[in-house]
Amino acid sequence: MQKKTVMDVDVDGKRVLVRTDFNVPMDRNKKIKDDTRLRACLPTITYLIGHRARIILCSHLGRPHGRVDENLRLEPVARRLSELLQRPVKPLREAIGPGVEQVVSGMQEGEVVLLENLRFYQGEEENDPGFTQELSKLADLVVNDAFGVSHRAHASVVGLADYLPCVAGLLMEKEIDQLSRILENPARPFALVIGGAKAGEKIRLLEHIIPHVDLVLIGGGTAATFLKGGGCNVGISAVEPDKMELVMRIMQKARALNVTILLPEDVVVTEKLEATAITLVVSVKQIPANCRIADIGPLTITEYTKELKKCRMVAWNGPMGVFEVPEFSEGTKSIAMVLAGLNATTVIGGGSTAEVVTQLGLSGKMTHVSTGGGAFLQFLSGKILPGIAVLADRNQSSSSIPTLM
Ligand code: ADP
Ligand code: MG
After folding, report:
1. Ligand 2 center to residue 373 CA distance, Å?
2. Among candidates 256, 243, 141, which has minimal Cα distance to 210?
3. Does 41 share its domain with 160?
4. Number of other CB atoms surrounding residue 273 within 10 Å
5. pTM of the model
6. Which of 351, 372, 373, 387 is catalytic?
7. Does residue 208 sit in the same domain as residue 329?
8. Choosing from 198, 243, 292, 333, which is the catalytic residue?
9. Tens digit of pLDDT for each residue in 101-160?
10. Under a CB-based contact definition with an 8 Å cutoff, are residues 375 and 150 in contact?
11. Judgement on whether residues 278 and 151 belong to the same structural domain of the protein
């Protein structure tokens, strides 16, 4: 890798701000449902402990949009992390300010604290210099181990590089190395399976991904906008009205490049996204006006399975349906099982997608399970991720970039 990692710099006794992606799924009792993302950062944290750094962890959790949300405090994360590390991880109730500075200035070597949810501050997502500067006061250097957010130009991901040297953590290094190796020379045919939420964002990335793949299989929330673009009535499914033109452009581009885009033929629909709701399997041409799409249907599963079996390489981000409700999890589970059985390179990305694969015990059957969803897609599109771009280069000696003493 061209970027410096935590192993290339002197961390002994230094205050090290580690940007992690601890955006873990939690149930109503604030119990962490899947701690994969915490475990993934352990190598960097234990390395820093072993090298006597003062470790200041920071992360976002959910989307509190710049306000304190009691349900999104990071305290449960600190507790679980403390169990995994078998040493105290002190949760702080703020991420910046005199109180935090005081705690940090009293830290011992090898001590670990966790700042409060960064997205409780508007400055984080806005990459506000005032917020960034406050954050930068806490540390001597930044280690970015949050591959999952490296596609976002937020204060803790990009902004900090204006004030402090930034290097990659060991998880970040692993993700960049693995994904570069896999995507450098993909085996063909190469399929992308795309689903999940944040359809607008995904559709935008698809435009750039199309030239790199042979086949795109669409499910999840993204399918509704594509189906609507193709003239289907999608009932009360959420669509991205301002992305219709882009959908048309993507379809045209795919045709011109000989890339096949497949949409569901049938879907599971419901009036309410609840386990007790009445569900129907219908053709996409017959979606009732009062229903929404909740999963791909059995015919679609069969068709997608047939196509995937022809592929030598498959990248997958985003569940095919609302998999959290068992009634709508069939599509997602089926795709996971098909990929696990393929004699092909398989790369999975995204919190929810990885969660399903892990729950089914199939992680070991995939070539690589990435901690990033959007970041992974952006990597696939060939675009440089802003959070990776700002990391110090191995051969960097520019005086404009802050360097370590
Ligand atoms: P990942 O975390 O794997 O990157 P996303 O965050 O994009 O995936 O999306 C995950 C979410 O998408 C899940 O909570 C799931 O319920 C939701 N989802 C999947 N299909 C649909 C659908 N048809 N309608 C609404 N939400 C959906
Ligand atoms: Mg997600």
Report:
1. 7
2. 256
3. yes
4. 14
5. 0.88
6. 351
7. yes
8. 198
9. 999 999 999 999 999 999 999 999 999 999 999 999 999 999 999 999 999 999 999 999
10. yes
11. no
| 380 inside domain | no
C-alpha 321, offset from chain centre: 17
Q: The tokens of 146 are what? A: 């949050």
| CA–CA dist 222, 201 (Å, integer) | 10
The helix (run of H) or strand (run of E) holding residue 353 is helix 351-359
232 and 337 assigned to the same domain? yes
Our answer on whether the CB atom of 351 is closer than 6 Å to any ligand 1 atom is yes
List the CATH number of the domain containing 86. Answer: 3.40.50.1260
Q: Is 37 a catalytic residue?
A: yes
Going from the Cα of 317 to the center of ligand 1, the distance in angstroms, rounded, reads 10
Mutate to test the pocket of ligand 1, among 225, 322, 366 (most ligand atoms within 8 A of CB): 322
Q: Which domain holds residue 11?
A: 6-172+385-400
Is 110 in the active site? no
Residue whose Cα lies nearest atom 14 of ligand 1: it is: 322
Share of the chain above pLDDT 70, in %: 98
321 CB near ligand 1 (under 6 Å): yes
